[in-house]
Amino acid sequence: IGTKGIPARSLTVLSDRLYFQSVFKNSAREVFTANGLNRKPMPTVNRVFRGDHLGNFVADPDSGQLFFFSVHDSGLHLNTISHPFDAVPNSGNIQSIHNKHFNHNKYNKHNNDIFDKTPEMQSDRVQDAPADIWEHQSPVLVNGKLLAVFRGNSRMGCIDIRHKRLERWLFDNVKQFSAANLNQMVIIDATGVYFPVTNHRDRFVPGENTMCPPIILDNKAAVMGMQDGKLRFYHLHNPSIQSEFRVFDSAGDPVTAVA
Q1: Cβ partners under 8 Å of residue 75, min gap 6
Q2: Measured between alpha carbons, how far is 120 from 199 in angstroms, rounded to an integer?
Q3: Does the N-terminal peptide bond of residue 206 adopt cis geometry, omega within 30 degrees of 0?
Q4: How many CB atoms neighbour CB 66 within 10 A?
Q5: What element of type H or E holds 23?
Q6: In which element (H, E) is residue 136 found?
Q7: What is the pTM of this model?
Q8: From first to last of its 259 residues, what are the pLDDT tens digits of the chain?
Q9: Contact 142, 179 (CB under 8 A)
């Protein structure tokens, strides 16, 4: 699939569409969708959003929605793409509404069956939230809330999706994190790994570091990709129990992503 911009990032699949972002020489970021992944010939690519500051995507297959943050008009906005559950595959471009930053596509309104089942897009300002979202840390969706990190003091905030409001602040100095729910969370900060529910902290020794967010495996273990080429496993309910597995023979080969 030919794309513009350099490079493609935040690749996310929802329904039969691939969403991704590209960065351009003027620092502008654009959101694209490749429609009809199961279609031959190759899917068509359409631009659906453009902005200077875009957060990574969060997909919720259960609700058929894709979320991402953007900063424009001096405020933080939550952008939502909604896929109807009865959407017809390859049913056309995204319907863009309520925001000047979206492409406004034209449709054949005589074909109401296709028009009505096209994914919709809207943008809402997030109340009480600063306009300094940290773009490189992916938000996490838990129980109708989005957990996101802001640049100021690297604070993690809890944003209510329904009411489009910053509900409360949770933690400061968050470097990376992962969460299965509010009771199963792992945070990496400047000093090490922190498990809020058990209030357990494992401090890094000098030279230890991570280059990627942790993952929670089967709600039982937290997995860290370490800069020295090892994977570190923590028992989620008893983080004092841990083990390590060396991925690379050389300590100079860091683990840069875990999934």
Answers
A1: 125, 126, 131
A2: 42
A3: no
A4: 25
A5: strand 17-23
A6: none
A7: 0.80
A8: 666 666 778 889 988 888 999 887 766 788 988 887 777 777 778 888 887 788 999 999 888 999 999 988 889 999 999 987 544 444 344 544 334 444 434 322 332 333 335 678 899 999 999 998 888 788 999 989 999 999 888 999 999 999 999 999 999 999 999 998 888 899 999 889 999 989 999 999 888 889 889 999 987 889 999 888 889 999 988 999 889 988 877 666 888 888 8
A9: yes
Place of tokens 């604070």: 155
Whether 221 and 233 have beta carbons less than 8 Å apart is answered as yes
Kindly state the tokens that stand for 181.
């729910």
Sign, CA torsion 27/212/216/174: negative
The alpha carbon of residue 74 and the mean position of all alpha carbons in its chain are separated, in whole angstroms, by: 22
Tell me, what amino acid is at 206?
P
DSSP 8-state assignment for residue 127: B
In the chain, the N- to C-terminal Cα span, in Å, equals 24
Alpha-carbon torsion angle 10, 14, 16, 20, nearest 10: -20
- Rounded to 5°, the CA angle 98-103-107 comes to 90
CA 248 to chain centre: 28
CA distance 40 to 48: 22
Residue 126 DSSP SS3: coil
Rounded to 5°, the CA angle 223-181-87 comes to 105
Other beta carbons within 10 Å of 48:
21
The amino acid that residue 138 corresponds to is S
Round to whole Å and give the CA distance between 47 and 27: 16
Phi (first) and psi of residue 136, to 5 degrees: -85, -10
For 113, phi and psi rounded to 5 degrees?
Answer: -60, -45
What is the rounded CA–CA span in Å between residue 214 and residue 224?
Answer: 5
